[in-house]
Amino acid sequence: MSLALQQEKTPVGLLRNKVYIRVYSAYAAAVFGDWFDMLAIQVLVGYRWQASPLMLALIPVANALPGILLGSAAGVAADRLNKLKLMRLCDLATAALTLLVLLAPNMAWLLPVLTLRAAVSALNVPAQQALTRRLVREDQLLQATSLNGIVNQGSKIAGPLLGGVALSFLSPHWCIVLCACFRIGSYGLLLTVKNADAAKAHTGETDHTPSAEQQTLRAMWKEGWSFIFRSRLLLFTMLFGLAGAMAIQLVDFQFTSLFRVIAPDREAMLGWLVAAAGAGAVLMIALMNRWNRSAGYGWKLGGGYMLIGAAIGGLGLLPQGSAILPVLVLGFVMGMGNGVFMVTFNYCLQKETPPHMTGRVFGIQSTVLGVVMIAAPLLGGVLVQAAGPGRIFLSLGIVIAAIGLSGILFGRVFWPKSHS
Asked: What is the pLDDT of residues 236-275, one digit of tens each?
């Protein structure tokens, strides 16, 4: 069978996988709701409570701490336990904790609730990735990863836009309620899936390693770390992603601080920025299949960071009272970079990892990123509070772009066997 014919049949085969489509739809419902929630919390804390940059930095810390403590164990759990039941449990728990956010009167109450909710998410992410790896064939991995990315980024268009409309007429609490409703909807969709593991036969793959049940948690955890250190490509990919993430996380939750300067009376502008970023990401994800055949990991990962850095630096140059157009343009560029990097990074981890190790690898990646999200946001809050958001955004934009350029220049060294 020719390569062209295989490529024509691949999308059809994936879309006919009913189990994957149901799981994918549940994921879409959950992620769509999350963007209502995230924007509402930022507006509530930043605009309504007038929290300082340092207090804003505590929000990602609360979200990251469970990932550090539970990330690797969550990856082992995703490989060892029933992934479908784990995702259902996570949806119910997330919905309940989201409703508790409504009762938080201040940061002292909000942060513990966010921490508990993040602990649940630490279990959900590797379970979803591992289940996707089981449900699709090897030649469909890029498409499945792209579809997940389209949902994740596409929700940044509809979520902030509709959330911005809701915030114009209603309080941020309504967005939080919608997040809980979408999580309940995700749970309902997962209930329609009766036996996800049976779809493994669709991939045509078999495991040639001891079953998860025959290994202890500690042994599986050590095996996951050992596998990463033995794989030069995976190790360099994670280190490169970590370097850029450290710089990005310094400002990731300081956009509210920046927009209180740029647009102090326009709460919805932050939503427009995120929506534009989502549009840019969706566009690049749609083009990824063609680019995938003509560029290696260095060009895609490095190019993604360069676009993100250019956009963040440009936002730092905007004066108070800026029009909406430059915000939309820079948001679009930032989304393009994020789309390229996110799909390439996740695809690389999935492609270079055997199915029985997928949950552990993504769990370890979550742990490492969680460590970054403890220190970096706090340092970013201190820097923004001391020097102002504009100067910090400009400086870190240059740093992120430089990291991206290094990936392009030294891509053949970092990823010598890249064929994607």
From this structure: 888 999 999 999 989 988 998 999 899 888 877 887 888 8
CA distances from 199 to 76, 134, 193, 356 (A): 21, 7, 11, 15
| pTM score, whole prediction | 0.72
Q: Are 234 and 349 in contact (CB under 8 A)?
A: yes
Q: Rg of the chain over CA atoms, in angstroms?
A: 21
393, 313 contact by CB (below 8 A)? yes
> Buried (b) or exposed (e) across 238-276, using 16+ Cβ within 10 A?
bebbebbbbbbbbbbbbbbbbbbebbeebbbbbbbbbbb
Alpha carbon 208 to its chain's center:
31
Of 96, 87, 90, which is closest to residue 180 (Cα–Cα)? Answer: 96
> Which of 170, 185, 155, 139 has the alpha carbon at shortest distance from 38?
155
Q: Across the chain, which distance is largest between two alpha carbons, in Å?
A: 63
pLDDT digits (tens, 9 = 90+) for 266-282: 877 887 888 888 888 88
Residue from 304, 331, 306 nearest 399 by CA = 306
Using CA atoms, how far apart are residues 178 and 173, in angstroms rounded to an integer? 9
Nearest CA-CA partner of 284 in 150, 391, 157, 418: 150
Rounded CA separation 135/144 (Å):
10
